[in-house]
Amino acid sequence: MNALKSTVSPSETLRVEVHADGIALIMLDVPGRPMNVVSPEFIDDMIAVIERVAADPGIRGAVITSAKPAFMAGADLKYIATLAGGAISSSEAFAFSQKPSVAMHRRLETCGKPFVAAINGLALGGGYELCLACHYRVIVDTPKAVVGLPEVTVGLLPGSGGTQRLPRMIGVEASLPYLLEGKAVGPAEALAAGLVDAIVPPADLIPSAKRWLLASPDAVRPWDKKGYKATGGLLNPVIATAMTMRYAAIAARTNHNYPAPIAILDCVFEGTMMPFDKALRLESKYFAKLLCDPVSRNLIRTTFLNKTEAGKLARRPPNVATLEVKKLGVLGAGMMGAGIAFVAASAGIEVVLLDREITLAEKGRHRAAELLTKDVQQGKKTQAQADVIVARIAPAVDYSGLQGCDLVVEAVFEDMAIKANATRKTEAVISAQAIVASNTSTLPISELATASCRPGQFIGLHFFSPVERMPLVEVVVGKQTSETTLANALDFVAQLKMTPIVVNDSRGFYTSRVFQTFIHEGMLLLEGGVSPALIENAAKFAGFPVGPLALLDEVTIELPWKIIQESAAALGAAFKKPAAYDVMRRMLEELKRPGKRYGQGFYDYPEGGKKRLWPGLAQAFPVAPTQPTLEAVKIRLLYIQALETVRCLEEGVLIHPADADVGALLAWGFPSWTGGPLSLIETVGVRRFVATCDELVGTAGPRFTPSDALRDKARRGLGYYAS
Amino acid sequence: MPDALIYDHVRTPRGRGRPDGALHEVSSAELGAQVLRALARRSSLDTALIDDVVFGCAQPVGEQGGNIGRAAVLQAGYAQSVAGQQVHRFCASALEAVNAAAAQIMTGQSLAAIGGGVESMSRTAMGADSGAWSADPWVAYQNHFAPQGIGADLIATLEGFSRNDVDSFAVESQRRAAHAWAGGYFKGSIEPVRDVLGDILLDRDEFMRPGTTLAALADLKPSFTGLGLAGFDAIALQQYPQVEAIEHVHTGGNSSGIVDGSAAVLLGNREFGTAIGRAPRARIKAFASIGSEPTIMLTAPGPVTRKLLKRCGMSVKDIDLFEINEAFAAVVMRFMRELELDPARVNVNGGAIAMGHPLGATGAIILGTVLDELERRDLGTALITLCAGNGLGTATIIERL
After folding, report:
1. What is the pTM of this model?
2. Rounded to whole angstroms, how far apart are CA atoms A83 and A96?
């Protein structure tokens, strides 16, 4: 190491040392944060440092690295969220992108002194764009050091030159997967793709960066040299083909719901034909467009900020000691029980997996082993690691095995009496402090709690199927559930590294209740003479993973039908037939087409072939001569869910709008561009949403009637989130 | 208004549009020039009488760029005073070129003009000119671009044409073309293409497969499944959401063939006929072009035909023969269904499925073919139409005198 020549007094977000060899070492170290993020303060500090490096004749060049384990994450999304979705004008957004940020990177690149990014850890988004602006990039050889440009995943683009520097460095085609898919890669792939210039052992990071600088490198980027050739755009047949095929993939994947990918593609296409500074201005214009679009706000707010908050247990009652579940009981080793046992064992928890026969319980454990086999095959885990996880699951038949469990999840058959019996037997053996959680998807928790001798310690933990792939848990608070139980149940969800939402007890809770309106609306559209293909396509083009009719076939109509029968039995005279009652009855009783499992539902399932809509639907539910527009069908499918969500919020089933939005995305794949059903209303505009619902009352039925509270919001111009 | 009269027309035989095709060694300018020379020779023409040569070309880049019309004029040895231009209406380019030449005459601005076109698909491949519509990402995205084969398959899906239906149509096209060749129906208008030594390179349509059977066609793989999977099926369904899935029924066997060729039509007013001592064979009665939904792309022939007939105060019954370019079997089948046409009056001597479709030349070829057939059958009126890229369509009515 060279002796220090001088130390520059630290700025807020970084420190600078100028070494005797004339190399300035810039260490990013944003105070009070685990990770360096791009902020206005950071950019000010960087500009000052760049000017110093440029002006000081004693400085030959600079190394940028981080004093934290990671190099730098992207922009501060909390801050970006305050600007997104129309909070600032497009010209303000353009200026926001151009002035401090783009200009800082450009000054770094053109100041005449060479800069090296010494990437000591993760460098994503704006962090990696800083590396791109440097004249050379060295990365440490550790798997945690990943680089990438994930902006597209939050509806934005890399707005500090990322869309322009990367294609100029590695080629237009090669750059597109990184820009359009936002994928982050480790050192080896980064080097192979040209995202970095060298991989070095951690100890050699700064020395190697210095060696490069001391070899009198060229501090002028290729695109700033005379005679640099732009791509020529469509005169280059390779670009022409790439653009046609990429556009097609984007249009097919986004259904025109997500504005970022096509903006990125166009930005690369247009920008690479232009001189660099013009291209940077174009990039800022596209960035501004995306920042002002509600979709970026929706994606940032729901899929990032609020999902993160939920993961950090935002709704956890304070002042309750944290519970660490060491031993978990799972009742029922079926699909759900086995899945819960698997995720718990994976999180390091000892699990007693109980079923009425040991073979069933063992089958449940075997499922965990099967799931792990895939991980082992893909190299995500070693066989030894997998074995340890499986060994944590102890199959059992006797309730006495539950002794010592901190929490027991009941996942037995959806039947009040069976569940009550399981609860009583469990409580007979577990400790007085332990919690019993039911994994029911529909039965009211407060009613199930009547079987409990300590209903304060009874709660709903509604997992989704398949558990290992569905990261959400709907935590259902019964009438008597205690604050401590809620807090500790949330602790358990966090232990599983899953995302909880908290709802109050109600038939169907939140997720099942709103999801049902989706499939019911699909059936009502069918009954109303809308072509089945149009219904299914409208759902898919709105952004749902599958259409409502296909979904019904997957679960079989028997499932919602059973739920309806249970409600009817439970509610007696108060029961109201759901709107699609008749379609379900006819499909089950008249047409005898319950669903996929039976080989026939709304679709035919030819052996070895792709499913096709059953042609007989046209006779059973005659298609009207005039069809609604695609947009009209999408609106019905989306709005009916938004309205039901509003009811859940107004009835107090939902406690917080964020839970509604996060839950909808994670539980049943509500389209993420909307940000969730409540964000959808804000995206449309509450006033316009209410007006459209009023029209739908006339054309589709009174179920579209907006509540008084919603009308009031429309009148007062309020949304669901404080802006 | 002066009549735009047709005095003659000529076309090259169509060569397979591949490097092993017979016409591959002939440049586009030379291919066009040979047709122009033939027109001049057949009428012992003083070419200085021609005001303009309008040539269609659908890939006007490389050797076909830079105004192939004027290049062909000079290459043909026409008088230097003869102007030249190139028009681009995708597959309808040559028909549009004939219409544009006719318009010059009808408005009295030209005494005589030639309309035609040239396309050497073996030398300038399809897609060579790219263009905003298909390759500028923003334009393609806003306009839901899908390749024409997807549109053809979408038409078949919407109309319920099965693979067997479209293959059957193709078999009939081959049969009719073979019959027409055997009967010598094309003889009077084919100009063999010659090489640099003056020897004949090709004197008959090289692409044809007479005796094509349904069974043989059934073995061919659908051509557009891969493009569909790449995203274009989804793009098409976004525009046609009443369709569950696109049936990919078009193959190389029931779509137009990729070929090289050129054709030209000699047009002039009455005085021009007197000057060259020839009687007109027909007149251009009227023409029209139209735009239609661009994603399905190929459905304009119906609307442009109706638009034209309406303007002329005519109905389909007033047309003796229809000639619609066989871009894809489903295009013609839909056209016939839409206008309730008797297949016996449509493409009576086969079409591009059998003989090939040199994009920028086809419009002039099929106009000439149907004129010859009107004369052979002693009928009066024909309508020529083509679907074209980006939802365009052009139609022309000709009338024997």
Report:
1. 0.94
2. 10
